[in-house]
Amino acid sequence: MSASPRYWNILRISLENEKEGYKYCLVPPAQEFCQEQAAKDNENLQISLLTSFQSRNYQGDSAKRARAGLCLRCYISHPILKACKKIDSLFAGNKSFSYRDLLPYVLNDDGKSLVILDDDGKTQVIIEENGKSKASIYKFFSIKVLQTFSNNSQFHMSLDNWTYLQTKQNQDIKEFLSEFGFKNLSEWALLNRVRSRQLQRLSSRSRHLIETFHAVYRRDRISTKNIGIKRCPDPSFTQQQEMLNLLQKREVTIKSNTELIHELKLVARELRQFDIWSYRETLETYDQNSESFHIRTDLPTTSINELDIEQRELLLFINEQLHLSLTNAIEKEIKSRISNLQKSKKYVPFATRFIFGLQMYYCKGMSLKDIAPKLEMSSWDQARRVLNPGEILSNVRAFTVQTVLEKTLEKAHEKGLTEIPPNPDYLKNLAEQIESFVDAEIFQEAIEEIRAGKSRYMESLYAQKLRDYLKKEEERAKK
After folding, report:
1. Does 297 have pLDDT greater than 70?
2. Model confidence over 242-279: pLDDT tens digits?
């Protein structure tokens, strides 16, 4: 089997091709090197190229590292373009911009320079024709993608999906989108303008937080409107104290102002995700006089055809299924692990301590080393085997991806978009998109939290949902 031409055909920005904005360019050095490597090990070609490019202290053959990287740079130029087109379809409903406007930020590799990473694994270094090297002033986005990709993690993501994720999270693209109304509002603005359909998706505790926030912060915002204060400032100390008192009356226990602000920001993060994936044709603004929302008048409006409506409905459906599936996956995994501990002669004493152990890890940010003696375990290694937050996360991710995919296929069949069973190509493409979406929205941040080591601070939506479940189980056990 021959190697894919993607390894030696790079996509470059093209000013001549105004319609597409890009062109395919053959890169002979990449083709020659890739075909040589494929002749040796075609089955594991990508792994071989990644191993060569990401190796450290490999001074003997920096040119080989650079050529391996060149092949990979060609390869990922294709998912970079695909991601830009996806962003276009999600956010450019009024056609104020297109994917072509996004390409300069991420499709900035011409495929001509030989580039490696320095021993620090971060600095981009150009290999010149005479064999000498120098730090590159111009930073290739493709190299950054390869720099951060891990092929050996238990949370392994395909290179295509990792590229999609990194393109979507590119800071330059985010700033570009903000110029067209897709700007991230502050946490306080998001909480201040929350709507009933969003409240329905939140936990009881989160709804109490928002309702209390409205009782204090929105009330004060309406009064300050009259003196010209437009930006939503941080809640004052007095406001925070009033919120804490109101929450106490609702039997919601929050111990400090710092904890209150932290929980409010977590709720705001969940609202922000709902905003992004609900895919509205136009944005809304909150009118504090009428305490209602109105379509923005500064954005052009267009008629919405039936296909637009179906696309938006499907995206909203997928986002809703993601949150439902995540909650169910966490409950399923925790119950399964406790059940397995109860059946184990060696670890049965830890079944009743399992919830407490996870609370220390996710609520207090304690390390497994510090948790071990509190659970009367013999060592860090035993705490890892019993609690194993990484394996829990991996299993929850797998179940969530599979569930969202199944629900999406059912919805697509219902709308007549596919048959059951679906065409293999349709299934493969949909599975890749679902996996990328789920990782970008939930699991990549959760993975990075676990990798952080000491002084970790669990703020991801995954951590929040897990804490909600642990608290529910703790309250149930007390009854």
Report:
1. no
2. 999 999 999 888 888 888 988 888 888 777 666 544 43
Q: Which helix (H) or strand (E) holds 78?
A: helix 62-91
Q: What is the pLDDT of residue 338?
A: 92
Residues 277 and 364 in one domain: no
What's the pLDDT score for residue 69?
Answer: 94
In-domain check, residue 339? yes
Neighbours of 56 (CB within 10 A): 11
Residues 6+ apart with CB under 8 A from 96: 180, 300
> Domain span at residue 32?
5-178
Residues 154, 215, single domain; the answer is no
Comparing CA positions, the residue from 65, 78, 84, 285 lying closest to residue 173 is 84
Mean pLDDT, residues 450-457 taken together: 64
Is the domain of 328 the same as that of 228?
no
> Is the domain of 263 the same as that of 234?
yes
The count of structural domains within the chain is 3
- Angle, CA 369 vertex, CA 363 and CA 371 arms, to 5°: 40
Mean pLDDT along residues 207-232: 75
How far, rounded to the nearest angstrom, does the alpha carbon of residue 16 sit from its chain's CA centroid? 35
Q: How far apart are CA 474 and CA 360, in angstroms?
A: 13
Q: Are 65 and 53 in contact (CB under 8 A)?
A: yes
CB 74 within 8 A of CB 6: yes
Examine the pLDDT at 451 and tell me if it is beyond 80: no
pLDDT (0 to 100) of residue 223: 65
Separation of alpha carbons 205 and 201, rounded Å = 12
Same domain, 236 and 171: no
Domain shared by 123 and 205, yes or no: no
Identify the H or E element spanning 39. Answer: helix 28-41
Strands 22-26, 292-295: pairing is unpaired
In this structure, are 16 and 130 located in the same domain? yes
% of residues, the chain, pLDDT over 70? 78
Tokens at residue 153, please? 């993690």
Phi/psi of residue 12, nearest 5 degrees: -120, 155
Q: Which of 178, 211, 237 is the C-terminal boundary of a domain?
A: 178
The token duo for 103 is 């390409």
The span from the CA of 402 to the CA of 199, in Å, is: 26
Asked if residue 408 has pLDDT above 60, the reply is: yes
Q: Specify if 301 maps to a domain.
A: no
Residue-wise pLDDT tens digits, 376-385: 888 888 888 8
Helix (H) or strand (E) holding 435: helix 424-438
